[in-house]
Amino acid sequence: MTVGISNSASSGRRLVLIVVVAAVFMTNLDLWIVNVALPTISSDFSAGGRPPRLSSLSWVLNGYAVGLAALLVVAGRLGDRIGHRKVFLGGVLLFTVSSGLCALAPNLPVLIAARVLQSVGAAAQLPTSLALLMTVFPAEQRTTVARGWSAVGALAAAAGPLIGGLLVLHSWRWVFVVNLPIGLLSLIAGLRVLPHPPVREREPLPDLVGAALVIVAVASLTGALVQAPVWGWASAATIGLLVLAVVATVLFLLRCARHPAPLFELSLFSVRGFGLANAAIFVFSIAFSIMLLSNVLWCQEVWHYSPLRTGLAMAPGPGLVPVVTLLSARAVHRYGTAPVATAGSLLFAAGMLWQAAFLNTDVSYAADLLPSMVLGGTGVGLALSTLIAAGVTSLPPQRSATGSAVVNAGRQVAAAVGVAVLVSLVGVRVSAGSLSEFRAAWVVAALFGMLAAGLAAAVPRPRPAPAPAPAVAAT
Q1: Is the CB of residue 376 less than 8 Å from the CB of residue 359?
Q2: Lowest-pLDDT range, 137-146, 244-253, 261-270, 322-331?
Q3: How much is the pTM?
Q4: Architecture of domain 10-456 in CATH?
């Protein structure tokens, strides 16, 4: 009898895992395939034969990132209050609908607006997805589950470049159409199998003013960085946006310190493992974002690769990530978070320095780009999932939704900053004459990777999970 119940519970957990993984895979896949499609989107939206500036085009990525950064914690808290299941399924539905709107966008402003709407759906899914998994899996399995959850993003990264390249052969719009069947199947299955974890109806409503301040702060900072090559660094508009970003950030932190239900619980950062892991993730994600977009632009705009060839060229790096993530689990268990994440960050930095030293306008993929992909992919596999798991599992289970939302919000802010830093370094147009600018961007990415290594080295080993209670036979 006990075995039967155990098998039934295990089967139920697997079904929940499948639904959650499908939805999270969909939202993570969108990052990679949209990056690969960006140059084609630029060509399609050319006005009078002149494509939009990179500073304008970057908002296809940053509009999504800013929306996620502002709303992830709101969605996490809303899930704590009204139910993770409701918020998760609502997010799947909104993401699917907005993906259809992206596919139908007639111009760049409409596409950016649809991407912002898409980010709302993604924000509802990500924190609640992990919370649902933390609910159905026992304490001794949660670290493994958290690492597996973060590895879904790595799996999407492995598939994304190739899938994106194949889809763009037909049209860039297909990179959004592909979300429709995944979203619909996840929604239908989720209604049947997702659990109804207890909710805290007395949980305060999320701080929407705080979310608005995040949007103002991140949008102002990224806007200043991407527009500075056009406006000038000393222009009144650039300085004004930078000042606005600082003011909004200060007001946001003050509000978090005083509000009864702050968007970011600053007390969470007093947990040493959570605070240090988040700092390392943030810095590493800036470097990762620079790498991702710069390699797409380099392959398509400098080496004149097709989208499919670009996808194939980029695939080895992300393809290594899930493999390394799985193989490194034993090393994390044996040696702890810090050595593994530090080694990963340093390998990623080495990959960026390799590109800065050896890449040039003469196409030599195997000798120049492939080694950096291998170094970078191995580094991401060692560092990112290890740091995410360390941060989330350092908090009590009842704060897993909010904690994972904070982790992912920081990653999205970092992604927006990374794109903006790249645009500010390479300028508004990219060509074979941009070699020195790309090299500067890769050196900056390497420096961020080294800083992440220093922070990761200080992350403490996660506390061991409590021993499970002895099983009681059913009567």
Answers
A1: no
A2: 137-146
A3: 0.82
A4: Up-down Bundle (1.20)
Structure tokens at 390: 């360390």
